Amino acid sequence: MKILVATEKPFAKAAVEGIASIVKESGHTLALLEKYTSAEQLYDAVKDVDALIVRSDKVTKEVIDAAPNLKIVVRAGAGYDNLDLAACTQKGIVAMNTPGQNSNAVAELAIGMMIYVSRNCFNPGTGSELKGKSVGIHAYGNVGRLVAGLAKGFGMKVLAFDPFVDKSVIINDNITPVDSIEELYEKSDFLSLHIPATPQTKNSVGLSLLEKLPKGGCLVNTARKEVVNEAELIAALEKRPDIKYVTDVPTENHAAISEKFGNRVFATPKKMGAETAEANINAGLAAAKQIAKFFETGDKTFQVNK
Ligand SMILES: NC(=O)c1ccc[n+]([C@@H]2O[C@H](COP(=O)([O-])OP(=O)(O)OC[C@H]3O[C@@H](n4cnc5c(N)ncnc54)[C@H](O)[C@@H]3O)[C@@H](O)[C@H]2O)c1
């Protein structure tokens, strides 16, 4: 089988080497398309491949249509909103992600952003400490759990809300579950956002939640830009001159927002949550292993288009 790794933003070299050796050991052939600059290059590269590994690359219906032999596509990462799942399903293509493989990198960045904002974005002046502050974990998945654990290490009070996770799981981790999303925002000096971008969550964080943050509250978004309603974010920052927004996934008009609100908003120049060598290697190798296992045994454990 021919397995293509197509990455606009390439994996770390060690990850590509690891993928290459898994592909070779399992008797398949590797093709590499890195730093491509047009969708056409991707259409051309997929025309004879059986499997595809991508990162944040968009796998659209056009890509699927250009790949008549494609049987499996794996998003090396957690969020899979860059895959057209309906198009995959329609063609009988299995779509997977690699859950948990880059979570630690994202969790560390979320904590780093909290420290950055607490220390005046590293400008001179008196800052504050994380110890004793409360942090609300909005979605207790792989990243949320790790942020919770790190935050406890900093002596923070950790609360969590996730309607799809049994409260006993949260309690067993010595984290305080809250009953509603409103309560979470009301009680969190830092609100760490970890919901996936789905039709239900898109634009779901807006004025009515943000204005509930306590005085000096800060929203930390390492999830997806689409889950925050940009117009309402602006309205909240206007209405509440004490609140802050830091993000790894800037909204469409971040430059204008940043100009307007100065040090109260910060975005990483490029999404970097999963941008560590370790996360690259974990996610890239997991993707290659999942494909090898799928071809060998038909295993679909991490399928997301069921
Ligand atoms: N910044 C980055 O580079 C980066 C890297 C990895 C992941 N992410 C983003 O972070 C998100 C979370 O990653 P993860 O690995 O923790 O995913 P995950 O699938 O392990 O966890 C997601 C959690 O969200 C919960 N959830 C779903 N809908 C919800 C809702 N409406 N309200 C509350 N909770 C809800 C689920 O129950 C689950 O526990 C991903 O979907 C992705 O968009 C960003």
Topology (elements, then pairings):
Blueprint: E1 2-7, H1 13-25, E2 29-34, H2 39-45, E3 51-54, H3 61-65, E4 72-75, H4 85-90, E5 94-97, H5 103-118, E6 134-138, H6 142-153, E7 157-161, H7 167-172, E8 176-177, H8 181-187, E9 190-193, H9 207-210, E10 218-221, H10 230-239, E11 244-247, H11 254-261, E12 265-267, H12 277-297
Parallel strand pairs: 1-2, 1-3, 3-4, 4-5, 6-7, 6-9, 7-8, 9-10, 10-11, 11-12
Helix pairs in contact: 1-12, 5-6
Nicotinamide-adenine-dinucleotide (NAD) binds next to helix 5 and helix 6.
Walk me through what this model shows.
The chain is of the alpha/beta class and 306 residues long. It has two domains: 2-101 and 276-297, Rossmann fold, CATH 3.40.50.720; 103-267, 3-Layer(aba) Sandwich (Rossmann fold). 38% of the residues lie in helices and 17% in strands. It has twelve helices and twelve strands. The strands form two sheets. Strands 8-7-6-9-10-11-12 form a seven-stranded parallel β-sheet, with helices on both faces. A five-stranded parallel β-sheet has the order 2-1-3-4-5, sandwiched between helices. β1, α1 (13-25) and β2 (29-34) form a beta-alpha-beta unit. α1 (13-25) packs parallel to α12 (277-297) and α5 (103-118) packs across α6 (142-153). The radius of gyration is 20 Å and the shape is elongated. 45% of the residues are buried. Bound molecules: nicotinamide-adenine-dinucleotide. Nicotinamide-adenine-dinucleotide binds next to α5 and α6.
